[in-house]
Amino acid sequence: MNLNDTTRLSRLTAILTLLQTKRLVTATALASKFSVSVRTIYRDIRALEQAGVPIITEEGKGYLLMEGYTIPPLMFTEAQANALIIAEQLVLKNKDTSFIRDYSAAIEKIKAVLRYSQKDKANLLSERTQFEQIKSLERNSSNLSDLQFALTNFLQTKIDYINAEGKTTTRIIEPFALLSTENWLLLAKCRLRKEFRYFRLDRIKKLQLLTEKFEPHQMTLQDFFDKNHDQ
């Protein structure tokens, strides 16, 4: 999802919320609120209509939702909810404070309709994810979604990992946090070494989520940083 797509998603969500809470909204007022052109608002309204939202246009007055129409509760899989958390981290790096405010408000509305179990896991993932802009596009992985699931469900995870010397070892780990600087890093407790280690996601060549769970670590990510900074 690029920045333009994320911006539009935030705006569409906010427009839909306004249509639910106000009887009538005008294209001019919406354009002013979101700092876009009236033509852009026209396109947004058409996009919502194409998505099945019954919007009534009153010529010369504005837009309103068809009477009696209610938006059904949003349902997300856990992986989709986790993807939203990562998208939120990306948005928070944007320099436009109004965009951050609007997107954060939209995300809070989305979180509000998650099931309690999903909401708790989404909040945990927010606390255990730290993001800096990825500079290298060469390094990648296909394990981020599985590791998010392991982290929030406290599942032991088996990985085949290639170290800096090119040697492959098999480890059983307890995923604790996800961080990104130049590349995505996993902070996890290595059961072999009996200590926390960083693992680069692009060096994980094979990953298996095990059925065995581990006891949740009570410390926060900041607790970990504070403890290791002092050492």
How does this model look, in words?
The structure is a single chain. By secondary structure, the protein is an alpha+beta fold. The protein has eight helices and eight strands. It has helices at residues 3-21, 27-34, 38-50, 78-91, 97-112, 116-127, 144-153, 221-230; strands at residues 55-58, 62-65, 129-131, 155-162, 168-180, 184-190, 195-200, 204-213. Strands 3, 4, 5, 6, 7 and 8 form a six-stranded mixed β-sheet that branches. The protein has a two-stranded antiparallel sheet with strand order 1-2. Helix 2 packs across helix 3 (38-50) and helix 4 (78-91) packs parallel to helix 6. The longest helix has 19 residues, at 3-21. It is elongated, with a radius of gyration of 22 Å. The model has no long low-confidence stretch (mean pLDDT 81).
Sum this structure up briefly.
The chain has 231 residues and is of the alpha+beta class. Helices cover 44% and strands 24% of the residues.
How are the SSEs ordered, and which strands pair?
Elements: H1 3-21, H2 27-34, H3 38-50, E1 55-58, E2 62-65, H4 78-91, H5 97-112, H6 116-127, E3 129-131, H7 144-153, E4 155-162, E5 168-180, E6 184-190, E7 195-200, E8 204-213, H8 221-230
Parallel strand pairs: 3-5
Antiparallel strand pairs: 1-2, 4-5, 4-8, 5-6, 6-7
Helix pairs in contact: 1-5, 2-3, 4-5, 4-6, 4-7, 6-7
